[in-house]
Each structure stands twice: as C-alpha cells, then as structure tokens.
Write a structure and sequence with these properties.
By secondary structure, the chain is α+β, with helices and mostly antiparallel strands. The strands form four sheets. Strands 7-8-9-10 form a four-stranded antiparallel sheet, covered by helices on one side. A hairpin with a 6-residue loop joins strand 5 and strand 6. The longest helix is centred in the first third of the chain and has 16 residues.
Amino acid sequence: MVVDLQAGHRDPEGAEPMTTDTLMPIFSGTKGIVATGVALLVDSGAIDPEAPVVRYWPEFGAAGKQGVLVRQLLSHSAGLPYPAKPVTREESMDNRAMAGQLAAQPPLWPVGMTTAYHALTFGWLAAELIRRVDGREVGEYLRAEITEWVPADFWLGLPESEWPRTGRRWRAADYQVANRLNTPEALAYRDKVYGNPPTLLGEDAPWSTPAWWTSGTLGGGAMASSLGMAAVYSALVTGKLVSGRMIDRIRREESRGTDPGTGRPLAFGLGYELQDSIETYGPEATGFGHSRAGGSLFGCWPRLGVAFAFSPCLIRTEGFDNRSHRLLTALHTCS
C-alpha cells in the first residue's frame, strides 16, 4: 500500500467518521470482481472466451442465442441489457431464476451489433457461467478463490456481524442517472435498464439497508472497503491472481460504442471496462477496472503496476463529477 486516505463521514447526519475499514455499497464495482472470477477460469483453461455460451450453459441457446460467444456475453454485447418481464427487488435476489429468465428471452438486437451497458443483467449472466463451469454459487466461489486468497475486505452477502462497519450513500440534491442523449426513446430505455428491478431510480435508497447488504445482488450488491477493492486489483495487476498473458487477454477490446440509454462512451474487455474517450481511468491508456453510479471507481494501470479504489458517500451525476479523475491525475503524476 502506498496511500490510504479517508475524509468526512459515512452517514448523512455527520455523526460517524469514515474509517479505513468502512464497508460501502460498491454498486457496479461488483461486476469487476465477478469478472475477475471469470478471468481465473479462463486462465486455467476451464472457459474458452471464443466458445459459444451453450457449451457451458445449454439452456442459454433459446430464442436465437445459440451462437452467442462467451466474450460477447462478458462484453455487454449479447443484447440482454434488462429483463423482458417486470422484476421486483425480491425476485431479483434469486440468481438462478434471473439467469433462467435471461436465458429464455431473445436479444434486443443482433448479437455483437450494439454495445449496451448490462447494468444488472451482467451479474446474473456471468455468475451463472461461473456456476455451470465450477459448480459453486458465485459468492462461495469468489470468497474461496479471490477474497480469502488475496485477502480482500469484500462481501457478496454481508453477515450481520459486519453491519456496524457499513457506510451509507446518499444522493446529491441534483442527482440523476446520467443521460447525454435526453430523448424520449433514450429515457424510456434507460428506465428499463435501471428500473427493472428498481435500483437507482425512485425516491428510496435500498442500498443503505440491511436487505441490500445481505442480498448479494450480483450486478451491484457487494459491500467492500476501498482497501479491499484496491487489494483485488493489486493482486490482479501484479500476477498473484492470473498470469501475465491473461492480463493482456482480459484487456483486449471486445466491444466499443455509445450506450443507447445514457449516451456514455463504452469500451469492454472480458467483463472489465477499458479506458474510454472521456478518460474514466485517468491519464493512463492501459487503465481498466469498473466504475459505478455516483462517482466510485476501482481499477488498475498494468503498465505502471498500480491499483486504486475511490468510494465516496455522496452520489453525484456522472459527467458533472470530476472527483476520481482529479485523484487519478495526481496519482499518475507521482507514478
């Protein structure tokens, strides 16, 4: 560890100071750890990213998806950005049922044609791939193969004994899910991605409740400290988790485009976000990892052997929030 910084409070009332071991809801930062779980299986030869998904998950071939490749599934280009049927929060916690629902539905467009952020569906899809290959539920698998091995303070399904360490996230007064397109069609699409099941949309904040902490929602329900997230990416980038050739493989660009709901530029490797045109990963071209709604950022710079994690309490609108970029620019200057 080179730098460990905390400031402010972990509750909106300002009564509880942020500490180095505060556990925060990391939203889509969860996807980066799930992607790391897949990377281990690719590195061992258990999963071939060029193979069709049906080799490992036969039921996935329904509704015209027989030819979808693993790398397309992992790079947000399989055409399954939201469940076709309405889903409640309670229903969304049944990972196998959600995976089954996605396996049965047709893609929204020809596979590989459009890169569209799979905000929640990525978790169910990637986790079912892991379960079909390894046999374990994803939480058990990640705990045994990554978080206990590193070790890292990361929880997919937080036990009650850890609740006293939790922090809260709250919206800025002007917060909204970013939308650079601002057309009726884009807004309607965005609401399906982020509102089925309801997560970031609506007046309540489910991520600050024990029900969310314990849910283990695969697309964004993990709890982790910043140190825990940085530890995973440090182990990844320094070769503790996968081989050097695997770092190159997971960073190979598989898809790039503009999200049809938010207008955000997207670039993906095997489950990870890659550097994009707005320099989400700072001034370093080799950066990759996973960001999350509201300002958090988790990732690494392979060329420099540096890992980082930024996890704020205040959720701000993407595109109007330069907190992580300012920190990464300063870090890059020192690297």
